Amino acid sequence: MGVGMAGSGTSSLGDGIVARIDRLAEISETPEHLARIFLTPEHRAAADLLLAWMREAGMSAHLDAIGNVCGRYEGDRPGLPCLMLGSHFDTVRDAGKWDGPLGLITAICCVADLHRRGRRLPFAVEVVGFADEEGVRFASTLLGSRAVAGTFDESVLGAKDRNGLSMRDALVKFGLDPQHIGAAARVRRELLAYVELHIEQGPVLEAEHLAVGAVTAIAGATRLAVRLTGMAGHAGTVPMALRRDALTGAAACITAIEEFCRTDPDGLVGTVGYIHAMPGATNVIPGQVSFTIDIRAPTDPHRKLAVADIVRRIEAIARERQLALQIDVTHENRTVPCAPWLKAQVSEAIAAGGYRVYELPSGAGHDGMAMIDIADVAMIFVRCRGGISHHPDEHVDAADADAGARVLLRMIENFRPL
Ligand code: HGY
Ligand code: MN
Ligand code: MN
């Protein structure tokens, strides 16, 4: 099965976490490039392993209606509202093994430590592993946490993956009922708060020589899908002046997006992470190109203005080049503040561990952006080497994993509801 629970004493929490991170990372679409995508056999295998670890940690555990793994460790009497912990266990493609799993496995190990000591608290502790935070397969993200928050948008059930399979059919194939997703929803009175530990995915804590930090807010994001349609043709016979080349048009758009974001003075970031040219033959002028855009900024008004500006530039390029344009917003998340009262308890736990308290925003998105609809949220960041993430070189030292775990465990044991 796998890795035993952390040994005695919290000093080996980090070792137990690292061993499980490695064990979970073995579950991947291919051994060469880590990928664990929503509603795939890897999702199922990872869920089975995580449910087993939750039960070993003294929790009752089940798979919910959208494929999240949910564990509950009762308080000093049954049926109490819970402090909810968690993170996601899906990954991007060619991923690092810490983004998501660190927070989820750390939460399980903290509960296991409570269980080992027979510690019961005046509230329950729940741990949720979200099945789709990255949105790799169906473009929209936070599917698992939105289902828990009761804000799952059923219109996405029609979204298709790159093989043309709809989310609805993928859920059925996985053994879940698309009509039943509402059963995953929780209500505010059941949760005292939501706290997520996560790797920073940036270089700030490393630059500050700190193992942990307290998150102030989670930056919002807008994702768009763009499709440019020109005219396919023979690479050898169509003069340049007569072409309506969709790929060179996309290249002009992508360069314009980079230029616009690069020259923005206030931290705007824009990414084109995926492009597909059709028909995709060396000797054929591309007739149609699809690509994605991810736009983020420190504030929502800034991001929204930037998106409008970028869309206008793309429209102008399409007009100039006589290309048909289809542009859709596939995902929009507002910036989410961490609750001051809860962030203060994160800072308290950091300080009690002997660390300098350092607060920082999250440029990356997290499940707290959905959970905010049913609970106040806070996050603990753990240093990752070089700030590298969404890359196989993503890495967390065992000592930092241990530090993060001890901060989370201390926060749990000292938690005071609002
Ligand atoms: O894209 C993000 O910010 C997150 O990793 N899903
Ligand atoms: Mn990620
Ligand atoms: Mn993540």
Question: Could you give a short description of this structure?
Answer:
The protein is an alpha+beta fold and 418 residues long. It is built from 11 helices and 16 strands.
Summarize the amount of helix as a percent range: 25-40%
- Describe the biggest sheet? 9 strands, mixed
Instruction: Assign the CATH architecture of the largest domain.
Output: 3-Layer(aba) Sandwich
Strand content: 15-25%
Name every ligand kind in the structure: (2S)-amino(hydroxy)ethanoic acid, manganese (II) ion
Instruction: Tell me the structural class.
Output: alpha+beta
Elements, N to C (H/E): HHEEEHEHHEHEEEHEEEEHEEHEHEH
Low-confidence stretches are 1-10
Say what the CATH topology of the largest domain is. Aminopeptidase
Computed Rg: 23 Å
Query: What is the domain tally?
Result: 2
Overall CATH class of the largest domain: Alpha Beta
Q: Which tags fit this structure?
A:
Alpha-Beta Plaits, disordered N terminus, five-stranded antiparallel sheet, 33% helix, 11 helices, nine-stranded mixed sheet, alpha+beta, 2 domains, single chain, binds (2S)-amino(hydroxy)ethanoic acid, binds manganese (II) ion, 418 residues, Aminopeptidase
